[in-house]
Records
---
Amino acid sequence: MKSHVFVVLFCAHHAFALDDTFLGQYENYFLPPPTDLDTKAVTTQYFSQVLDHYDPTNTARWSQRYFVNTQHFNTTEGFVVFLLIGGEGQAGVQWMSAGAWIQTAREYGALLFQLEHRFYGESHPLSDLSLPNLRFLSSQQAIEDIATFISAMNREYHLPQNVKWILFGGSYSGSLATWARQKYPHLIHGVMASSSPVYAHLDFYEYFEIVFNSLSSNSHQCALAMKKSFEQLEYYINNPNEENVTALFNLCLDINLDENRIENNIAYLFERLSSRIAGVVQYHGIAGQPTIDSLCNIFNNVSLGREIDRLAGVARFLYGTSCVAYRFQALLNTLGNTAILSTRNSRQWYYQTCTEYGWYQTSSQQDPIIGTRTGIDFYTQICSTVFGLAFTPSFTSEHIERTNRYYGGYDTEATNVIHVHGSLDPWYPMGLTETVNPDSPVIFIDGTSHCANLYPISVNDPPALTQARETINYIIGVWLGRNSAVGVHLSVSLIVIGLLAKLL
């Protein structure tokens, strides 16, 4: 196995602004949008999409939202189209005028589209999120949506046969772009996939190992203090007479009351606290987001007292004056809600994890990092409770195996894909982190986290990130026939010397 891993990008959600009853780890899927907005050149359109691409007798259609920006479109040197793939959340119009891909579009004169994923945002094929309707939600249907959309836009914009479509995506949407290129290389010329998992995995215990290592990159003392704080929290939960955990962490419910001390509530509390910390690590370096430094300043502050006191300080920093909710039934109620709301994505995404990916960020490490309460059973029982008894752990495991068998997992054969990962990103073990196919190079950026290369260029960018963006832009230019494929010096870690000679 080449390396080891999750989700997603291009969503207008703030990383910490979702429904407080939902699993914190899934708050971490959504990238905060760029802060500089100028959407005057962006239009919103709706495309008549096929409901079921695998049943020719089903003629139902629905309206899929997409965005268009034509201001950089220049056909002087050829026809180029960039398509930003939507992921498991509401598509973000902000990305249509900001982000590193905009500079690439200016350079190569690209027409810009963004396609929202079915069942998210405003792109809902059916009237609710009931289980019979969710059977139309899958990565395979989404890939067919992409291919159908590309073919339709080729006709609508009278694009010639030699038009070159380049897909962009981050996290899950980058995975979709990669798999779409693998299936439709005649439609899709190349892909830039940032922080994208390609290997489906049930028990994603590696996630918190990378969180620990990323904290250690700032201060090993900081990482050890976090680990110790969860050990102490677990001890005091088990010995309630020795510490008032409710007061210390400003919990919404008294955890010493028998009706609140059920195991799933306790597990959910550990999940809420650990995932908020993980979210900071995952989006370290993104403008306006908390940083690893801010966490370690608290975990290393011995004047605050014991490690558990510092964990409480971190909780206050991340939750503010809001109490910390941990009632498991509230989570189930949220996931069980079949009503459609453009900003709600929890039920849909959990359904996809139960039927395709797993990626459950557990406490199953050999040397526990966040206590021992959030094992794989905590997550898999949600599948059967919310979606029905047929959604057993073996059911999910079988579908994860099918996903890897269908797409190839780490052995994906997609060519002309740039796989980009950051060394601080807890998701990178599920992606390709070394170049094994010169036609699909890997760029591994030291000191950056989830999808960092997608954001607008900043004077604060580390040199490795700047070099990575330049390399990405150059490779895209090679694909488009604008740049030479030989004689290029690449200093980005894990780029194979001479790979550009094979990119054409």
---
Amino acid sequence: MPALFACTPTCNINSVPTSELHYIASEADRLVRSSNTVVVLGIWSHFSTFPIAVYMQRLKSTCRAVLRLLDRAPNTLVVIRTGNLRTMTFMFAMTNSDWKPQGLDGFRDDDQQQLVLVIAGHGALSHVQRAERSPVLVLTALVVNLDVAVAAAPTAIPGKFQIQTQIKNSDVKYLREGKSFFFWRSSEVSDQHKLSVNWCEMEIRAGKWRKFSACRLKYTAIFLFLVVSAVFFLQRNINVLKFQNKTTPTTPVPNHQHINCSHQQLSPEERRLLDSIAWPETPRLPVPISLNMTSDPAHSTFTILPVRAGGQWHVGDELEALIQIGDFQGRPKQFGGDFLVARLHDPELLAGVAGRVVDHLNGSYTAVFPLLWEGRAQVEVILVHSSEAITVLHRLNREHPGRMAFNSLFRSGSVSETTVCNVCLPPDQPLCNYTDLHTGEPWFCYKPRNLGCDTRINHFREDVKRVLMAKEEILFLRGVNMKVFICASGSNIAVLPKEQGQPEVKSSTVKPEPAGYYYQGAWQALGGATIRQFNNASAISQCLTDKVVHMYGDSTIRQWFEHLSRVLPDLKGFNLHSTKQCGPFIAVDIARNIMVKFHCHAPPIRSTISSFDLRYIANELDRLVGGSNTVVVFTIWAHFGTYPVEVYIRRLQSIRRAVLRLLDRAPDTLVVIRTGNPKALNLDVALINSDWYSLQRDKVLRAMFKGLNVRLVDAWDMVLAHHLPHDLHPPPPIIKNMIDVLLSYICPPKK
């Protein structure tokens, strides 16, 4: 039962990091949960030095957010804590006099909205009947000395509640299992204050009072005087209140503001990145398409080249295999552009390393491997896609970036509509612009006919549109010309121990080298950190003690959260009633002060999720304070396959800027990035999430974060080098090795 507390701007605690200043309205808009959620807010004591118009404007924005929350989740319990009287000194009275207790006039029954303010004093109980129509519970603390009045709404789940009220401290604790509590209030409700306690108990059964005890009212005359003064002050200042109707990102945009994701002007950096991943051009496909002149793994072969200096293979040498691609008629191809992957492995030693493939642009390729272990080694080469298939994949992203359809449900009361959404939409009808104000990330939905843009409820994917030309599907035949092994005779070699004085051999044509290799099933890094083995829960828990691990991304990073939750018996998850795919998820180990959190990234995420839970990674990073006890882990790649690479580049640019800001304010923060990985392919997967798409984005990600103080978990090499089949969600032995790499970054071996 976690209780989350956040301070708002104007909070005058000694100092608050700017990344932790959160407006109540913004926080309320981030909530999704319903009957299991209690929201407690108080905002009054830090506004006394401002004109009343400032305070009322803040209340209005908070009220609108509460209304939106109750509209999408009517069973949410909202509790409002009002102001109270305090001991006065001259200096305190000048800034926070009891003459200026701010009211909650923003929360009224206006416009048929079911919100209510319960006034303190003898009349409090008379308002219970009115409160029974309201989903908002108001805890009134504007009393003298120890006088307390409490009212509650019947929408609360029947059961026992105990409300503890500390005058001048006013800490409200709802002791009920299975509830999530969100506290937004001023600094005087901090647990640091040690003041006397006054208890008031109540029991709610089926929305009716069974027991209500309140302390005896004192100083009624003073209280009434304060109420009359406050009302008089509000009336005198109400005319200065001017609310501005600002355009929000949820308003319809004219067609000329539509962002076309295919024809934006490129920055110099974007041009350099695109040039760095340029793929060899291939001849135009014949019409109609025939397999005869396309790449055929059955008519392709590879040969291991002899040792450069003659003799035998030794650890430290470099092995090269020459690959020749043929077509379905058995003729050698005369141009490049095929997508090949290769690995060197020994099944008995559970050893393996990924090779680097060089395209000679004439139908031949070279796979290069470092020899890292003594014993047997076997070369494997896989044709992932023919060059002709690459031509189709490239065309699809350029001409049909919207072939993966997304929808959103809009709802207000009993009226609901569903419309199409995407990064880029033809502006042939009114659009709702959900472009993020902070990152500039575009997202649009067609405007519902009868509802406003601010009634959007969720986000989900639809079917994939097959937009292939005639017979193009024959280029993506699993087991025929897609993800098929190329056979060769004599693919095994014997590797001897490294000779004394043997010079180190490095390739002059292949860079970079592999990130690491497997030996006896454990991942060993090359040219980087020493990887420790965390083989039991005790070692993992010891490493994570006093750490908060924030995970952002897709389901491939959610696997890490699930792995830690599974192997650590003391890491207890809290049920936030969130979706199984996107979260958010939280798991804590109270004894060791460990917290692990996961949240999926924002659109184009391909999962069903509430629109209020869509979070851009850059924005989440900007909310972190950071520090030596903070670990940030993210990945973002698998859901961008259908878009031009420019869309992915711009998303990474916004994340990189946020990472730089985080490391600038908290240099000790550890930032870890998980790369993409190869996967099993069929026709439908290949058209939206091909390994070729993943490879292109993997290259961009590495270039984007090169030189920054971040760490990489090279999932591409770790999946490619392993003996288990490729999978979007790698099997447990690979995930265990990935977690070992992560933990080795968090807890490096002592020198």
---
Amino acid sequence: MWRALWRSIDRFSLQHFKYIINELRVIKVVDKLNKELVVDLLQSLVEIVTYGDRHDPMIFECFMEYQVLGEFVRVLKISKNSRIEAPLLQYLSIMIQNMDTEHAIYYCLSNDYINSIITHQYEFDGGDLAPYYVSFLRAVSSKLNRDTLCLLVKVHEDAVVSFPLYSEALKFAHHGEKMIQTAIRALTLNIYNVSDDMVYRFVTTPPVSQYFSDIVLSIKKQCTHLDALVHATEESFPRGRTRDLLETDKIVDELYYLEDLLCIDEPRLRKMVTQNLVSLLIFPMLLPLLQLGQSNVRYSSSELFSLSAKLLKLHKGTYISAVTSLFVVTRLLQVVQGENMVNFVASAILYAEMFSSMKHTIEGVTDDGTNHVNSIFNPLHEMVCLEPEGAENFKTNYLLGHLSEYLPCDPHFASFPCNDTVNKRAGILSYIFSDNQSLMLASLMLLLVLAESEDLDYQLAGLIGFCQTKTRMQKTYDLSASQVFDGRIFVRHLPQILHALLKVLASQPPFTVLIQWHTAWFLRKLLVIQEKKLDNHDVHLFNTSYEQSCECLRKELDGCWFDYMPDTLRNEWANCKRVLEESSQSKDPFFALELAYHQHTSCGGPTASALAWQRMVDAVKPNVDEKHPTWLHLRIREFDPKFDESKTRSHHLNTSNHEENGRWTLGFPDADACVAAQLLILEETNKQRSSVESLLAPLLQTRSQNLIDDQGE
């Protein structure tokens, strides 16, 4: 009977919902004593509202009638150091994220309750409130559309004067926690994708538009730090520079965010992002590539003073080395798609080459009778001329106009005398022909990324002159061969470039494996692109490189892993072939920083890893103890090498085990038996080595001759 009188409470009933609301209204102050009670009440409210939005319209009607969101605002105002903000924001985020009906979302964003919660004076210092606050902002932004966005902005005379959601979010744009940064970027993209005209005007007008310059300046700061890591000593970074260098991922993340912004179909937004990228990052990065002091372009004293002032302003007291600049610009072009960036970078690095090449074309006349100089410079000059400042006309012209602000674009500069030596040392060619391998490969990488870009202008592609590029551009623009430039600039130097690469491969003593690997990738890439065969001298260099590689492979037969060489070559050949054939868009230019790092630390001497390898090879040889002639010391290699990283890690954790450590000492009854055992081990090792050598013999003997035969056909 008593059980029948005791009725269970329906937690999701309208009656219980009203009871919870009344309980919350009774509270006049929130302190440490009643904090838990208030948190429970807020949780119950959110759970019931979420349930009612999907299953019971009467609950949400009650939610609006009792103005429950107003109660959330009131709780924030009456709390006294009770730390109620974090759970309140958490429950609000959950409620907003789970709202499905347009009616519920529209109501929640109206009445200015959300703005009141956003602009509340929170204390973020030293606490964990920031993640909850940012999560709440992101939840609100996820419900924005053309109908709801207007509820969160304040407008005066057809202009947005206040947008708390956006303004408050930007305060956390450069927060130290990656999760918060990611949430803010998702929020901004949600706002930009609504495509509201007044909001676009608001975000692209100072001082709010400073957000875009802050992003680019943040990237530049990270690039400066990266450059310091590449060129600093190991002692300057005790936690390890190799790990720090991997922080390039942060720069790439920033670039992908900028790419997301540029993909939004809004000209004003794209213009704002592009302007800041060009002015604050790309052009300062390209300054070392322009080689103004080494070009044949002459300046007056006033021009030099003006130019120096502009360049100093661009640098803003910082300097980034050429190899880091090449890495950043190359990675940017791989991530940020579009003709604006590609053509601006191409114009900048080809600028010096356009002038130096004029000596060879000044007398040239095209098939239609026009001067060849004009056929090149007229379209380029048209590209340089700025169009009106309207967002609709902001295209490549702004970018090239920005370039022309710092460099003259006038055909009369081509009349200055130039020679082949100057040509080789002008602009990016000065790095391609550099004795520094990291600079040479990094500059070639940038050139290949430009040449293989789908967005490269056909005129600039013609200046590079790669065969595949010309064919693609003719097909894209429906141009005849006579309308495409002859590619004098780089094709003219291609034999020297190939020769420089082969000299690296055939160097004696040889360069590091890392340098040889990437050099071979570039050599193959250029040969495939140009469909060019090597001349006799270059074939000799190639054969020299091949023989050196074979000799290194033969030396590996003296190592402790010689029996694994056939299986390793067989298993890894497909991976090596895949990597060698990857496109420039897929190849990570981080290798240039690795090369610069290793060149800086090794200083030409044997590396620590090489010395460690030699010590290990020496250690595995059987050795009779000098003091105890009946003892034979061995280092027993494990039967199955742990090439897998996870296996290697677990193996290292157990190196204290004597058996797995592999150090053995065998005792024999007399010295003769000990020596006989040693000879038996060496004999069996030699037999196995001979077997492996016979398997590798075709690889080591016939490849070089085949190359010569192929070249002769």
